[in-house]
Amino acid sequence: MSSLERSLTEIEQGWHQTDTDYVCHYCDTVFAKDEVFPVEGKFYPAAEMIRQHVAQAHPDAINDLIQTDSKYNTLTTKQRSLLMAFARGEKDATIAGETGVAAATVRHQKFTFREKAKQAKLYLAIYERVFNQTPVPDALVDLPEQTGPVDDRFAITTTEFQTIVQKYFISTDPLRLKRWPKSQKAILAVLKQVMSLIPVDRHYTERDLTAVLKPVYADYPMLRRYLIDYDFLQRKADGSDYWRNPDYKE
Known about the structure:
By secondary structure, the chain is α+β, with helices and mostly antiparallel strands. The chain is 45% helix and 13% strand.
């Protein structure tokens, strides 16, 4: 698929995502969604890395976009030069002095660009409604609020959730986990499914909670720890009492 066949947002940002990766349009560099990447002693998710990559590896991306060699790029040479000057943040008077025209002429051209953008937006809206009939996007499943940084791994659609449950559970009635997932998104989906066994407003001793979790997965201590770490469950410091996070309502 050529870059111009992608969505408007993807063309503008210079990258797109597949089911498993983020891909740069300019050099085809790939960042896998289920990995984190070390940079100067810090670790970043793939969604952040693709943004950093485009900004650092392709600082002239806006110029490349303006100069796109395509029959669909109908900008004149003068218009391209003006757009690159606007992109650099040059003032109207400066551009006028460099091009030998009046500042009013530059301002008028900027107004013309804005009017064309409005025309293009209206056309795209009409086209999408007529030909694509874009479906309503999948709703996101509810997850507990997190205290640390949150990225797209915490955004799980209902379709993704159902797919993960089918992949990692042997059965859902009774609930039996086949294996522990590696990706954070899958872990969150598994934890959410396990929470279907924990009713609201009920408190558990550690023994009671073990009786619920042990049949689900052999490593039930790890399962319990993850439920607490991601704030699905809360507990007393001495581990004598466990309960569902009251702010987490499905």
